[in-house]
Amino acid sequence: MRLKFIKPQEPVLALKPPVSNGWLCEIKDDGCCTQIILDWAGALTFTRMGIDRLKRHRPVVTAAEQLKAKSFIPGGEMIAPQPGGRPNFHAMHSRMAWNAELLAFVAFDILHKSGEDLRWRPAVERKAILRELIQPAEGIVQCSQHVEGGVEIYEAADRMSLKGIVSKRKVTPYRSGAKDAVWLKCWDIDFELIGIKRQPGEWTERLFARHVKNVGKAVIAKTDAIKNWLWTREQKAKAGPPNGVPTAQVTPEVEWVKPDINARVRTLRGEPKLRNAPVQDLWEINSGGAG
């Protein structure tokens, strides 16, 4: 019988890094969550939802099959590294389609090795087993490095405009779906509201810019009072589309407004477009008061 895909953990989003040495903290690589499974029949790769990606990851799978173990299941991130090693998330799909040899797999946990289910072991022990398996970790299969305590590594990630960090308690076992890990993002938060897109049966989306440059859209899930406050001000601020907005976005569904309203949007620092971007707060630029 072949080894089966194991549902990943689900990190909790946090606002501050853990400060104690009871945590293992590492850089969150900006890629696609991936699980490699090697058993008697060969290796396979799966997305975080359990979808087979072997055909798109063939060079990485071939490299993983050279590791010295009869079987294993590491979890990690499939990344598209640039020169110098920095991941480029926006290059992922083109590389999977045309240049899979330019992908790399960065493992951050291991759940099975050579017939032993490792999920019951503490995270610190699993990390040691993972490092022993992936050595010297200089090829396209690599091992994520960690430190104890998260303040310094988070500050380093922030300075380098990286995605953020992930932290796990040293003593915790691996529990599928459990929220035992903490994901702390690095944020860029100040944007100007420039438009509203309304479509029947769909969430109303707001379009945002940063320094007059279009950066994308986000949904505002707020109270009725804040929604009414926002609607009133949007009606007063109606305008034409600002410079720099892609022609494809200038459609009848979009109402444009003057950039008189600021939004506090949590999104990944360094990204040219909004990703994973909840709106936290709103205020008029001239008044300085929160909506």
Write structural notes for this entry.
- The protein has 291 residues and is an alpha+beta fold.
- The chain folds into two domains: 12-185, DNA ligase/mRNA capping enzyme (D-amino Acid Aminotransferase, Chain A, domain 1, 2-Layer Sandwich); 187-284, Beta Barrel (OB fold (Dihydrolipoamide Acetyltransferase, E2P)).
- It is 16% helix and 34% strand.
- It is built from five helices and 17 strands.
- It has helices at residues 58-64, 92-98, 123-133, 151-159, 224-236; strands at residues 12-14, 23-27, 32-39, 42-47, 72-79, 104-113, 116-117, 141-143, 146-148, 164-169, 181-185, 187-197, 205-210, 213-219, 254-256, 261-268, 279-284.
- Strands 3, 4, 5, 6, 7 and 8 form a six-stranded mixed sheet that branches. Strands 12, 13, 14, 15, 16 and 17 form a six-stranded antiparallel sheet that branches. The chain has a five-stranded mixed sheet with strand order 1-11-10-2-9.
- The protein is elongated, with a radius of gyration of 22 Å.
- The mean pLDDT is 88.
Shape: elongated
Please give the count of helices: 5
Q: What's the helix-strand series?
A: EEEEHEHEEHEEHEEEEEHEEE
The largest sheet is: 6 strands, mixed
Backbone CA Rg: 22 Å
Distance between the termini: 58 Å
CATH architecture of the largest domain: 2-Layer Sandwich
Compute the number of structural domains: 2
CATH topology of the largest domain: D-amino Acid Aminotransferase, Chain A, domain 1
Helix vs. strand class: alpha+beta
Parts with pLDDT < 50 across at least 5 consecutive residues: none
CATH class of the largest domain: Alpha Beta
Overall pLDDT confidence: 88
